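Comment thread on ticket #2218

A.B. wrote:
> Attaching the input chain for the structure job we discussed in standup.
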Amino acid sequence: MRLSTTGALAAFCATARAFSDSSPFILFSTAKLPEPASLEQLQSSSQVIESAKDLLKSCPTTKYLVVSQPNLNAAHLAAGQAVPNLYRSLENAESRLSVAEVVGHLDVKELSDYIRESCDGKSASTDVLELEPIATTQSAKTLKENGMPCSIILDGRVDVDCGADDRLAMVLEQYQAEGSYTVIYAAGPRTEAPKTYTAEFQDSTHVELKRQLQHLGKRALNDTSNLPLFEKYQFFTPGIFMALFVLVVLLSILYSGISALSSLEVSYGAFDKEMGPAAQKKQQ
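C.D. wrote:
> Ran it. Output below, let me know if you need it in another format.
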C-alpha cells in the first residue's frame, strides 16, 4: 500500500474547498499494511473507521499515535508549507491511507480504544496527541502586527499555526527512534460551526415593483429645463408630418382646379340677348 507522498496528498489540493463540514484523515505506518477496502476521497466517517480497523486489526507496529486537531479541513493540508514536518514523516512511511473528505464526526477515541483492544497482550503502546484548534477568526493583519512569523495564512485569514506542526514533529522524532510506529491524523470535535449558505428568493411582485421604481427614479432625474428648443420639444411628430403631407396634396389639387378654370376663354357676346343663341333662332 505504498504510494508517493504527492499522490497521497494530491487529493487535498483538488478538494480543498469541496465541503466546509468535512475533514481529512491520514494514516501512515512503517509496517506494510494491506490494501484498504476503498480509496475514494469522499467517504463517511463510518467507512473510514471500518477501513482503519481492518488495517490495524493485526496490530502491525509496536507504537501508535492518534493525533486530533479540531477545525481541521483539507485546505490546511493542501498547502505543503503548512505541515512540513508531517510531509517529511510521510516520506519515511511504508504504508499510507489518506481520505480528503470525511463526512460526519470521526471519533478518534473509538480508534484508540480499538487499537488497545487489538494489541491487548502485546508489547504495544497507544498515545493520543491533541493539538490546538485551528483558529479561523483572527485576521492576518492582526497576526503580522503581533509579530508571529511562524503561521500560515490562507485566503487572508490565519488557518494553521506552525507550533502545532512543530509539536507533532517532536513526538514523531521519538517514534522514529523506536522504528515501528503507526500515526493516525484526523480532526477532533469542531469548536466553530461551519457557515451555511442560505438562499434568498425575492417575490416576483416585489422585483417588478423595484424595477418600476428604478425606472421612475431615472425619469425624475432627467432634467430637460436647460436643453435647446428642438431637443426639449418634438415638433415634427408622425401625426403632424402626415397632416402636412395631406395639406400639400389638397392645395395642389385646388391649385390645379383654379388654374383650369382660369384658362377657359368665353366671349362676352355669348351672354348678350341680341347676339345669344336665342336671338339667332328668332332671326331664323
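A.B. wrote:
> Thanks. Noting for the ticket: Strands lie at 22-29, 42-44, 63-68, 95-103, 125-130, 151-154, 157-161, 181-186.
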